[in-house]
Amino acid sequence: MLMQSRHTGRKLSISQNYRFHPEMMTIAGLIRQGAIGQIGQVRLDFYKGWPFHKDDFRQSMPYPIIVDMAIHHFDLMRYLTGLEARIVQATAWNPSWSTNLGDTSAVVQFQMNNDARIVYNASWCAQGDFCDWNGNWLIEGDKGSIIYENNRITLNRTDSRHQVTHTEIVEPLNPPLVSQALLLSQFIEAIQSDSRPQTDVANNLRSIAMVFAAVTAIETGKSIPTLTPELELLLSEEMVE
User: Fold this and answer.
1) Cβ distance 21 to 178 under 8 Å?
2) Fold observed for domain 19-240
3) The pLDDT of residue 7
4) Contact at 8 Å (CB) between 239 and 223?
5) 137: number of CA atoms within 13 Å, CB side?
């Protein structure tokens, strides 16, 4: 798709609408403003009990939690932190009560380009411990942390002894447009101004590469570079243009 977009000169944006949820936009803004300093580690838990019926294509997927769902969360990792994934380790399994053929639970660890670690702990067949579609986040920096759970954003500021000195509940932004509507509005604006959409095809390749690399890490049991040399070269050329 990237090569076709280049060849035709047409803009192509991917519908990564989770970025445009008000709560995620609020957290990204706090991090950009330096509210918690330099990010060092992140934990993202995603738990839902989601039984797929027998005719659902997800039921036969080898790793449905990774291949079908995780792209949204992996893209949020990049969007919220402003960091890029470099190396991934992963493991997956299927709990005894799962009716899926493939592994519905997984733990994935990304090493980011500032050496921070992001741990993704996820399951499609959770037994009673559920979150919303954004997942539950703990984002830690050298000045504090942000906790997100079920639409509630908590900002903690800490001192040099890692003790919390101030806690506040942050109200999410209330923009006039959200989700798909905001994404489409930004896409139209990018066409009119001849600029790049936030989630253009080149940007999205970095997120989808995290998915494929996680699958390879699961299947090989090894630490895997997130970008192949070919894709890294292609994206570096895209940045130059």
Assistant:
1) yes
2) Dihydrodipicolinate Reductase; domain 2 (3.30.360)
3) 56
4) no
5) 28
Q: What is the mean pLDDT of residues 116-133?
A: 94
Averaged pLDDT for residues 110-131: 95
**Rounded mean pLDDT, 47-52:** 87
Helix (H, G, I), strand (E, B) or coil at 139: strand
**What pLDDT shows up at residue 197?**
85
Decide: 37 and 162 in contact? Cβ < 8 Å.
no
Local structure of residue 77 (DSSP, 8 states): H
For tokens 């944006």, name the residue: 13
Are the C-beta atoms of 97 and 77 separated by less than 8 Å? no
The per-residue pLDDT for 241 is 44
Are the CB atoms for 124 and 148 separated by under 8 Å?
no
Domain limits, the chain? 19-240
